[in-house]
Specification:
Layout lengths: L1 H28 L6 H4 L18 H25 L1 H4 L1 H23 L7
Helix pairs in contact: 3-5
InterPro entries: NAD(P)H_OxRDtase_bac/plastid (IPR023043), NADH_UbQ/plastoQ_OxRdtase_su3 (IPR000440), NDAH_ubi_oxred_su3_sf (IPR038430)
EC number: 7.1.1.-
GO molecular function: NADH dehydrogenase (ubiquinone) activity; NADH:ubiquinone reductase (non-electrogenic) activity; quinone binding
Protein backbone atom coordinates (compact mmCIF):
# COMPACT_ATOMS: atom_id res chain seq x y z
CA UNK A 1 0.00 0.00 0.00
CA UNK A 2 2.84 2.41 0.70
CA UNK A 3 4.06 1.82 -2.87
CA UNK A 4 0.88 3.48 -4.15
CA UNK A 5 1.49 6.52 -1.98
CA UNK A 6 5.11 6.65 -3.10
CA UNK A 7 4.03 6.68 -6.75
CA UNK A 8 1.54 9.47 -6.08
CA UNK A 9 4.17 11.44 -4.17
CA UNK A 10 6.71 11.04 -6.96
CA UNK A 11 4.14 12.10 -9.55
CA UNK A 12 3.28 15.15 -7.44
CA UNK A 13 6.93 16.15 -7.07
CA UNK A 14 7.54 15.71 -10.81
CA UNK A 15 4.43 17.75 -11.68
CA UNK A 16 5.47 20.59 -9.36
CA UNK A 17 9.03 20.52 -10.71
CA UNK A 18 7.84 20.69 -14.32
CA UNK A 19 5.57 23.62 -13.50
CA UNK A 20 8.34 25.50 -11.73
CA UNK A 21 10.75 24.89 -14.60
CA UNK A 22 8.18 26.09 -17.14
CA UNK A 23 7.52 29.25 -15.13
CA UNK A 24 11.19 30.04 -14.55
CA UNK A 25 12.52 29.36 -18.07
CA UNK A 26 11.07 32.51 -19.68
CA UNK A 27 12.40 34.66 -16.86
CA UNK A 28 15.87 33.21 -17.26
CA UNK A 29 16.04 33.03 -21.06
CA UNK A 30 14.04 36.05 -22.23
CA UNK A 31 16.02 39.08 -23.40
CA UNK A 32 15.88 41.96 -20.95
CA UNK A 33 16.22 45.11 -23.04
CA UNK A 34 13.34 47.40 -22.07
CA UNK A 35 13.02 50.41 -24.33
CA UNK A 36 10.29 53.06 -24.09
CA UNK A 37 8.66 51.71 -27.25
CA UNK A 38 8.18 48.27 -25.68
CA UNK A 39 6.71 49.70 -22.49
CA UNK A 40 3.86 51.56 -24.21
CA UNK A 41 0.42 49.93 -24.43
CA UNK A 42 -0.41 48.54 -27.84
CA UNK A 43 -3.58 49.69 -29.57
CA UNK A 44 -3.21 48.53 -33.13
CA UNK A 45 -0.28 50.82 -33.83
CA UNK A 46 -2.15 53.99 -32.87
CA UNK A 47 -1.30 56.37 -30.08
CA UNK A 48 -3.51 55.93 -27.04
CA UNK A 49 -6.18 58.52 -26.37
CA UNK A 50 -7.15 59.18 -22.77
CA UNK A 51 -6.44 56.87 -19.88
CA UNK A 52 -5.04 53.50 -20.82
CA UNK A 53 -6.05 51.63 -17.68
CA UNK A 54 -9.80 51.69 -17.20
CA UNK A 55 -11.82 50.33 -14.32
CA UNK A 56 -13.52 46.98 -14.67
CA UNK A 57 -17.21 46.87 -13.81
CA UNK A 58 -18.03 44.37 -11.11
CA UNK A 59 -21.35 43.55 -12.82
CA UNK A 60 -19.49 41.29 -15.22
CA UNK A 61 -18.14 39.34 -12.27
CA UNK A 62 -21.65 38.92 -10.86
CA UNK A 63 -22.92 37.64 -14.21
CA UNK A 64 -20.07 35.15 -14.33
CA UNK A 65 -20.83 34.04 -10.79
CA UNK A 66 -24.54 33.49 -11.48
CA UNK A 67 -23.72 31.72 -14.75
CA UNK A 68 -21.28 29.42 -12.96
CA UNK A 69 -23.86 28.53 -10.33
CA UNK A 70 -26.42 27.54 -12.94
CA UNK A 71 -23.81 25.79 -15.05
CA UNK A 72 -22.90 23.64 -12.06
CA UNK A 73 -26.59 22.94 -11.58
CA UNK A 74 -26.73 21.59 -15.11
CA UNK A 75 -23.70 19.40 -14.49
CA UNK A 76 -25.44 17.84 -11.48
CA UNK A 77 -28.84 17.67 -13.12
CA UNK A 78 -27.81 15.80 -16.27
CA UNK A 79 -26.55 12.54 -14.68
CA UNK A 80 -29.49 12.60 -12.29
CA UNK A 81 -31.91 12.83 -15.21
CA UNK A 82 -30.23 9.90 -16.96
CA UNK A 83 -30.61 7.59 -13.97
CA UNK A 84 -33.85 9.00 -12.58
CA UNK A 85 -35.82 5.73 -12.74
CA UNK A 86 -33.22 3.71 -10.85
CA UNK A 87 -32.73 6.29 -8.09
CA UNK A 88 -36.27 6.44 -6.79
CA UNK A 89 -38.22 8.91 -4.72
CA UNK A 90 -35.41 9.93 -2.37
CA UNK A 91 -33.28 11.16 -5.28
CA UNK A 92 -36.25 13.08 -6.66
CA UNK A 93 -36.79 14.86 -3.34
CA UNK A 94 -33.07 15.55 -3.02
CA UNK A 95 -32.90 17.09 -6.49
CA UNK A 96 -36.06 19.08 -5.82
CA UNK A 97 -34.44 20.59 -2.71
CA UNK A 98 -31.28 21.32 -4.73
CA UNK A 99 -33.26 23.17 -7.41
CA UNK A 100 -35.25 25.09 -4.79
CA UNK A 101 -32.01 26.26 -3.16
CA UNK A 102 -30.71 27.44 -6.53
CA UNK A 103 -33.97 29.21 -7.33
CA UNK A 104 -33.83 31.00 -3.97
CA UNK A 105 -30.31 32.14 -4.83
CA UNK A 106 -31.47 33.29 -8.26
CA UNK A 107 -34.38 35.18 -6.72
CA UNK A 108 -32.03 36.86 -4.23
CA UNK A 109 -29.61 37.88 -7.00
CA UNK A 110 -32.52 39.28 -8.99
CA UNK A 111 -33.91 41.14 -5.97
CA UNK A 112 -30.52 42.70 -5.17
CA UNK A 113 -30.13 43.92 -8.76
CA UNK A 114 -27.16 41.71 -9.60
CA UNK A 115 -28.75 40.77 -12.92
CA UNK A 116 -29.22 44.31 -14.22
CA UNK A 117 -26.84 45.02 -17.08
CA UNK A 118 -25.81 48.58 -16.30
Amino acid sequence: MSDNFAAVGIALVVAIAINLIMMLMPKLLAPKKPVPEKLTPYEGGNQTIGRTWLGFKSNYFLYALVFTAFDVETVFLFPWALSFRQLGTFAFIEMFVFIVILLVGFWYAWKEGALEWM
